[in-house]
Amino acid sequence: xxxxxxxxxxxxxxxxxxxxxxxGADDAGIKTELIFLRDYVITPCIGCEKCRKDKTCSQxxxxxxxxxxxxxxxDHIILGSPVYHYNITSQMKSFIDRLYPYYIFxxxxxxxxQSRLADTKRSSLIFSICEQTDKKEEGFAIEAMSRPxxxxxxxxxxxxxxxxxxxxxxxxxxxxxxxxxYKMGREFAAYQ
Length: 192
Ligand SMILES: Cc1cc2nc3c(=O)[nH]c(=O)nc-3n(C[C@H](O)[C@H](O)[C@H](O)COP(=O)(O)O)c2cc1C
Hints:
This protein has a five-stranded parallel beta sheet with strand order 2-1-3-6-7, sandwiched between helices. The chain has six helices and seven strands, in the order E-H-E-H-H-E-H-E-E-E-H-E-H. The chain has one domain: Flavodoxin domain (Rossmann fold, 3-Layer(aba) Sandwich), CATH 3.40.50.360. It has 192 residues and is an alpha/beta fold. Helix 1 crosses helix 6. The longest helix has 16 residues, at 175-190. The structure holds flavin mononucleotide. Flavin mononucleotide binds at residues 7, 9, 12-14, 82-86, 129-132, 137, 139, 165-166, 168.
């Protein structure tokens, strides 16, 4: 299972939740790895379309070259992002856009698409964390992560929008949410 944190804030709420989910998955006996996107240089996609021919990103030699093999190897992926202006962080957006080489497009217009990641059954658990408690303020962070993954043939196993957390690490005080995160990680690990 691959956990991917899109928070620029080290040891913040997103990191805490994703660690707890992976702890649950570890206890279920599966191999886990946690990636912090802030530790990688992920240059935003420029739409050069070189990946159509090359089947990988040949425009940039950056952190994505380290991440592509991990993505391909993982049948379970957790994506987590804080909400930034109703949306995901720019780190998470750049990461998702750089998954573009995995599409196979037809030659007609608009192009029909398939995913090279449909080679095996892949599923995903998606969560977001925001400060406000009004559901509207969470915006479209969950959709911004789940829809691209669905387009790339992932089954969205579950989603968890979390509201009401601002200070770094404040989510640790919420025992119920911490237990939910652990349980979700454990159950997601058992999902085939
Ligand atoms: C640039 C920026 C934009 C934000 N936008 C929103 C927002 O639109 N809605 C919201 O409820 N919280 C917003 N927040 C608050 C964060 O989502 C919140 O503090 C979250 O707990 C941060 O997660 P982290 O500790 O994993 O970084 C924003 C924070 C920053 C720094």
